[in-house]
Amino acid sequence: MDINNSVALVTGANRGLGRAFAQRLLERGAHKVYATARRPETVDLPGVEVLPLDITDPASVRAAAEAAPDVTLLVNNAGISTGTDLVTGSLDTVRHELETNMFGHLGMIREFAPALAGNGGGAVVNVLSAMSWFGGAGANSYHLTKAAAWAMTNGVRLELAGQGTLVTAVHLGLADTDMAAGWSVDKIAPSDLADAALDGVEAGSAEVLADQWSRDIKSRLPLTPEEFNAAMDRALTALMAA
């Protein structure tokens, strides 16, 4: 798929990775970029077409699909991190995080799949995380949602292959956004993450490992749980000491 002259829709485009996606799409020659947000007045990027969208509200998702029938590239970026644990945290909060990070993306795909098919197949980008593969105290709800989103992405890739729609999973460690503001470690620039993802789409890639952190963690998946956890402890200790 060629980004040039594509018609893209980006969720959560008012800040962080979503804004970077929208900006790089414009700079790389997209014909039109729909920039969506729950509060559309917070989208401040010139040159985009702003749409209101709450990905957890089926009516809002349906309205966005009706307003943007020409989409050829869907970028599922919107998400939340609540800092909730699974056993002791609020179950309602866990459900809300799952509704946003997995079901929200799935709902977008279900609504936009017919338009993508009608417009030649197109592509879907799901912004996931290296935490698709590991958890930790204070982040296990997020881990659950990203693991579920990874599985969902792998499933819809198979289901949409027949209509010619590419589904690309994008994994990263930490990006330099508000969500990671409390971490004093190396972070990928949002524009670099967006470029890596869009390069992957143009190459027809099913998966993009956008930084060394995500590549290292993915490489450890063949380990036993004990070996994996020990390796993660060493990696996190080294990261915090850097």
TrEMBL record:
Keywords for this protein: Oxidoreductase
PANTHER family to which the protein is assigned, alphabetical: NADPH-DEPENDENT 1-ACYLDIHYDROXYACETONE PHOSPHATE REDUCTASE
Cited Gene3D superfamilies: NAD(P)-binding Rossmann-like Domain
Source species: Streptomyces salinarius
Bilayer-crossing regions: none
Cited Pfam families: adh_short
Family: Belongs to the short-chain dehydrogenases/reductases (SDR) family.
Entry protein name: SDR family oxidoreductase
